[in-house]
Amino acid sequence: MEANSQRVPVADDEDAYESSRKDAIRADISRRLKKICSNFSEEDFATLVDGMADKKIRGDRRTSL
């Protein structure tokens, strides 16, 4: 019984993977755009990067089907 309580559900593993993947994509986009978008406020820049990361992930899902 105790061994089963230590297992991590598959959904949690997938969520952790997606989260770390999104963080990596966000970091890459941020690094590439930081100099170009230096006039953006921190909030506007974060909004831009988050939106681009979401679109990248959605596009990747579409092409993998």
Q: What layout of secondary structure does this protein have?
A:
Elements lengths: L1 H4 L4 H24 L8 H23 L1
Helix pairs in contact: 2-3
Write a short abstract of this structure:
The chain has 3 helices and no strands. With 65 residues, it is mostly helical. It has one domain.
Structural summary, described in words:
The protein has 65 residues and is mostly helical. It has one domain. It has three helices and no strands. α2 packs across α3.
Rounded to an integer in angstroms, the radius of gyration calculated over CA atoms is: 17 Å
Please report the distance between the alpha carbons of the first and last residues. Answer: 38 Å
List the uncertain runs.
none
Q: Helical residue percent? A: over 70%
Secondary-structure element series: HHH
Q: Tell me about the biggest sheet?
A: none
Number of alpha- plus pi-helical segments = 3
